[in-house]
Design a protein that fits this description.
The chain is of the alpha+beta class. It has 3 domains: 2-147, 2-Layer Sandwich (Beta-Lactamase); 207-289, Helix Hairpins (Orthogonal Bundle); 297-442, 2-Layer Sandwich (Heat Shock Protein 90). The chain has 10 helices and 13 strands. The protein has helices spanning 2-5, 8-75, 142-187, 189-192, 207-259, 262-289, 301-318, 337-354, 389-392, 411-421; strands at 82-88, 93-96, 104-107, 113-117, 120-130, 133-140, 297-300, 322-326, 332-335, 361-369, 372-378, 425-430, 435-442. Strands 2-1-6-5-4-3 form a 6-stranded antiparallel sheet. It has a 5-stranded mixed sheet with strand order 8-10-11-13-12. Helix 2 packs antiparallel against helix 3 (142-187).
Length: 445
């Protein structure tokens, strides 16, 4: 029910049903009022006619003739619903089927009496025939009251049925609308994965959904055009900037080999850093824009980690550090091997650049955890404060208080983008001491 109340369609149907219920209640209330008034008038007219007939009898036959008529009428079966009582001015009983004056429950403003006799509701009128003669004429109104009660019950059931129909119809329409939204979300899932050529097809649905689909398709077409232009700009930048930088690096490297000047070595390092930052920015841009698509394939995690270990172990040895490997019978992971290798390279290079503690042990590991596969790199450096973990993964952020060397601040950002590209996440943990970077990846990306 809470889920339904959060749906705008159900709330609109609920409001419309409430409006219909109010309107229906007003109509049924007016109808019931007219019915009750008609029933009451019919009962009163019957009492008046009987009173008029008895009054004529009194005028024609006198008190004795009236008393005999009342006794005769009260004794007849056809008049079992009539209640008569003739009394003198002091209230003494003369004739009728009411020996005692009834205990009146209510008295209307126009003089009508309402009481109960033998469990049956009675409506009566008290008439002054002469100075010393009073006649009470009453009628059993049980049938009329039962009819009104039946109508009240029918009206309440009609309102309840209207409420149930409104709620049921609202729930049906709201769930149908929710299914349409879910269908649109499922159809747009390829867009989230970078395929901007996806289009919605809602031709069999209502005009409002078709209009929405047309707007979304127009937006996707515009996005596809803009992303195509972005990709063209990225390719032009890669061609126009990376090639000159590479040539500049080659020239500096040649000059360094000829002269051996330290200034040239520093310039060469600056160019290497610039190329690295440029490549990282270009990779991040392609991942974020969806230009880089996921080439999903079965990745042998154990072989991947072994290759990374063989590649970096000599470099760690040169820095008086140990690179360990912990990966036993790892299952195959569905993902992009090149991107995963790039992420591990970035993490290992970050350790060499910012956590190169002599004698420390760096562990490259993999294990399964709650349906996900976790690749991790744990170092023994200074680490990062837990409250700075999220900030450390932001772009161009350098934590001077925990990192001893400068950098572009893009290494962890690129690793996080690669994880997100696989449907996973990068998680930083305290290694006590040091930092443990974990790539949480679904086994099937």
């Amino acid at each position: 029910m809470r889920t339904l109340l959060r749906l705008a369609g159900f709330r609109a149907a609920l409001a419309y049903t409430a409006l219909l219920l109010v309107a229906m209640a007003l109509v049924l209330g007016l109808l019931y009022g007219r019915l009750a008034e008609s029933t009451r008038m019919a009962q009163d007219n019957l009492i008046w006619r009987e009173a008029a007939a008895l009054s004529l009898t009194h005028q024609r036959d006198g008190v004795r003739g009236l008393a005999q008529t009342i006794d005769t009428v009260g004794a007849q079966d056809s008049y079992r619903a009539s209640y008569l009582r003739l009394s003198d001015g002091l209230g003494s009983f003369i004739a009728g089927n009411l020996k005692e004056f009834p205990k009146v429950n209510t008295t209307d403003a126009d003089g009508w009496l309402n009481f109960t006799e033998g469990g049956a509701p009675v409506r009566a009128r008290l008439l002054q025939l002469d100075n010393n003669l009073v006649l009470l004429v009453g009628q059993d109104i049980a049938d009329g009251e039962n009819l009104l009660a039946a109508f009240r019950q029918a009206f309440v059931l009609a309102l309840i049925a209207m409420l149930l129909v409104g709620l049921g119809g609202g729930a049906f329409l709201a769930r149908r609308g929710l299914k349409q939204v879910e269908a649109i979300g499922a159809a747009l899932k390829p867009v989230m994965e970078g395929d901007l050529s996806t289009r919605l097809n809602l031709r069999r649905d209502g005009a409002e959904w078709q209009a929405l689909a047309a707007q979304i398709n127009a937006m996707l077409a515009q996005l596809e055009t803009l992303m195509g232009a972005t990709r063209q700009v990225s390719d032009n930048l890669a061609h126009d900037l990376r090639a000159p930088l590479t040539r500049l690096r080659a020239r500096l490297e040649g000059l360094l080999a000829d002269t051996g000047e330290a200034a040239l070595a520093g310039a060469l390092e600056d160019v290497d850093g610039l190329l690295k930052s440029f490549n990282a920015l270009l990779a991040l841009s392609r991942l974020d824009s969806g230009v880089t698509t996921l080439n999903a394939e079965a990745v042998d995690v154990a072989a991947l980690l072994a290759d990374m270990h063989d590649l970096f172990a000599p470099i760690f040895d040169d820095n008086d550090m140990t690179l360990g490997l912990a990966c036993a019978d790892a299952p195959r992971l569905s993902g992009d091997a090149a991107l995963l290798a790039q992420a591990l390279v970035n993490l290992l290079e970050n350790v060499l650049a910012h956590a190169a503690i002599k004698g420390s042990i760096v562990t490259l590991a993999a294990h399964e955890d709650n349906g996900c596969f976790v690749l991790s790199v744990a170092d023994g450096g200074a680490g990062i404060a837990p409250d700075q973990h999220e900030r450390a993964m932001a772009r161009f952020v350098q934590l001077d208080e925990s990192r001893s060397q400068s950098g572009s601040g893009l290494g962890l950002s690129l690793v996080a983008a690669i994880c997100a590209h696989h449907g996973g996440a990068l998680v930083l943990r305290d290694n006590a001491p040091g930092l443990k970077a974990e790539l949480h990846l679904p086994i099937k990306s």
